[in-house]
């Protein structure tokens, strides 16, 4: 079954989350639907993200219906809420798959340089040990 809240416009592009505004809320929000880029071109991840955003959107629609005294959000307000939730989801996925990144960019670059220096030193030591070993076995070298 195809999800109506997941849209893919062009080949190689990002998937979009689409929400069709319920009929009773269309006059209040002033639109029939809205879309939000998922920033992801991978179908499996996009399905998970769009399902999560759809659940949140339905919760927002129900909150609007149940609380008539509540300040009425605009579609831009709803999009901002969804963008925050989308960022949280992406950070969670990144943390889950890649592990926590505890280093800042400069600390990471310093670590890379230190590793390269250590590798260079290791290569020099290895070369020196190899030459010393050759001299032990063959003093003429």
Task: Outline the fold blueprint.
Blueprint: E1 6-8, E2 15-20, H1 26-29, E3 33-37, H2 43-66, H3 75-98, H4 105-137
Antiparallel strand pairs: 1-2, 2-3
Helix pairs in contact: 2-3
Describe this structure in words.
This protein has four helices and three strands; from the N terminus they run ββαβααα. It is mainly alpha-helical. It folds into two domains: 97 residues; 39 residues. A hairpin with a 6-residue loop joins β1 and β2. α2 packs across α3. The longest helix is centred in the C-terminal third of the chain and has 33 residues.
Task: Let me know the number of strands.
Answer: 3
Helical coverage, percent range:
55-70%
Order of strands, main sheet, comes to 1-2-3
Q: What profile does the largest beta sheet have?
A: 3 strands, antiparallel
Instruction: Give the integer mean of the pLDDT values.
Output: 83
Rg to the nearest angstrom?
28 Å
Write down the secondary-structure element order. Answer: EEHEHHH
Number of domains: 2
Shape: rod-shaped
Brief summary:
The protein is mainly α and 141 residues long. Helices cover 60% and strands 10% of the residues. Strands 1-2-3 form a three-stranded antiparallel β-sheet, covered by helices on one side.
């Amino acid at each position: 079954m195809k999800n109506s809240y997941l849209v893919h416009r062009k080949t190689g592009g990002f998937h979009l989350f689409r929400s069709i505004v319920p009929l009773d809320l269309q006059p209040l929000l002033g639109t029939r639907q809205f879309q939000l880029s998922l920033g992801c071109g991978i179908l499996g991840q996009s399905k998970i993200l769009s399902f999560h955003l759809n659940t949140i959107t339905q919760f927002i629609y129900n909150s609007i219906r149940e609380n008539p005294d509540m300040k009425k959000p605009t579609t831009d307000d709803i999009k901002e809420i969804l963008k925050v939730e989308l960022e949280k989801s992406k950070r969670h996925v990144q943390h889950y798959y890649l592990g926590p990144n505890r280093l800042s960019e400069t600390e990471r670059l310093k670590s890379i340089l230190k590793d390269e220096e250590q590798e260079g030193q290791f290569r020099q030591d290895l070369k020196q040990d190899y030459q010393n070993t050759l001299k032990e076995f063959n003093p003429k070298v």
